[in-house]
Amino acid sequence: MKTKDIQELSVAEIEKKIRDTRAELLDLRLKKQTGQVEKTHKITEARKDIARMETIRSAKIAAEKKSA
């Protein structure tokens, strides 16, 4: 997911995306352990997406607190 797309989302939507991506990451890890995953780069992409979303979410929360 692109940074620009994430920035357009609200904090609640970002949190939902984080939960979904974490579930996807867990599924990918389990499949990797059993040898069912062919595209292992998806695990790295999911980790980076989660980090990107967490960073933007915390920046939005800080901006809300600062403006309030």
TrEMBL record:
The lineage of its organism: Bacteria, Pseudomonadati, Verrucomicrobiota, Opitutia, Puniceicoccales. It holds the Pfam family Ribosomal_L29. HAMAP family: Ribosomal_uL29. GO terms for cellular component: cytosolic large ribosomal subunit. Residues 4-31 form a coiled coil. GO terms for molecular function: structural constituent of ribosome. One of its GO terms (biological process) is translation. It comes from the Bacteria. It comes from Pelagicoccus albus. InterPro entries: Ribosomal_protein_uL29 (IPR050063), Ribosomal_uL29 (IPR001854), Ribosomal_uL29_sf (IPR036049). Keywords: Coiled coil, Ribonucleoprotein, Ribosomal protein. This is Large ribosomal subunit protein uL29. Belongs to the universal ribosomal protein uL29 family.
